[in-house]
Here is the input.
Amino acid sequence: MVRYLIFTTVSLGLLLTGIAGTSIAIALDAIRTSFGVSVVLAGWVVAAFQLTLTASLPVVGKISDVLGRRRTFMACLVLYIVGSVMAALAPNIWLLIVSRVIQGLGGGGFMPSAVGIVAEVFPHSRQRAIGFFTSIFPIGQIAGPVIGGWLIDSFGWTAIFWVNVPTGLFVLVLAWLLLPRGVRREGHIDLFGAALIAGSLGLFMGALSFIAYATTAKMWVMVGMLFAGAAALTVVFLRHEATAKSPIVDLEILKRGPFLAANIYNVVYGAGVIGIMSLIPLFAINVYGISYFDSGLILVPRAIGVMVTSFIVSILLMRLGYRWPIMIGTCLAALSLFLFSLEPHQLMTLGGGLESTTTLALILLVMGIGVGMAAPASNNACIELMPERAATITGIRGMCRQAGGAVSITLATLTLHESASIASGFRLVFIALAIAMLATIPAIFAMPRSPTCIDEVKPAEPKP
Here is the structure.
């Protein structure tokens, strides 16, 4: 009985991040209006969280191995609660962005530490228990838009942060009472590597953002220096990882053909189906004039599509193989992005007279079906090549996707800022992302075809 309570406790932590992710997407326009800032600066409220998540994902698993699962999970909860309080009280956009960084440090640690806890508590059925986690995020993404839209309409955007405090404290008390006390282990944590990759991405995204304000020679010099700093940190990061005792990123997994193809796909996947989704409510509110509540409601079909389709594809994965589900899912996601790029009157005509809210929800349902097809296959496509490195491969995959999402938000908000109107800016963003998604098809065919064909891409055994 106790172990099921433990599973419920860590699942509630994951549910918090699922709800928070969709809630902030709905609040973005209200935050922008409240502080009177540009869409570029408002975009950093989402991008800062994604960036912190990117850097923390590969590290927290190692931290939990060294410091213990219970300590790590509770520390992440405390950071998440503190970040939520700071965000709700933030008097300006800058402190709100800092608060989101603290939230990201906490939220990024829930999944790795929760997986470790469940693996220890359910040693004989850990695959099934961990597999149930895949249904928790969609539940959060279904509840988040509805709860977030209602909270913003009723109490203002700060309510989406205040609601995290009592729920977070409840989970913290449960964790303190129920989670088993772990034992500290010896190990090395590559914090320097994590700092380098976060710094490189941060400088690169900062340079992109400053382009929107570069009206003088000095500003352009600053943009150039930021780009140069990002490049320099990347070089230092690669050299450090090549000699690090416990590197945060295994360079072998970055360089080998199938892994390289998968990581390229994951970056574009993160940009096209993770990052841009944070801006869909902003798009719906400003281009189609729908309410905050409705802008959250249209996200629900996407979450349902992901949950149902991914469950079916997971069951049939051995029969379907990897490549075709990824390719069909990617094409459906690209189709959804192309439909979003249509003029409102064209889309309404195509929708056969349906209301704009219904039409947008149906397009997001198609997107959800596509993501649900591609996700299970792309999550497993290269793990069989090195099953003993499954955790490392999973961490790099998550890092690539979050990095793609963070950069796409920055590029998208820069495009919106520089365009003649938000509608024309979104049109350009959607078309560019759709083309980028279709351009990954060659990378899909460089991945293993199916679990039974792994030997085709495994390196030959060295002769004695």
Summary: Residues 2-35 form the longest helix (34 residues).
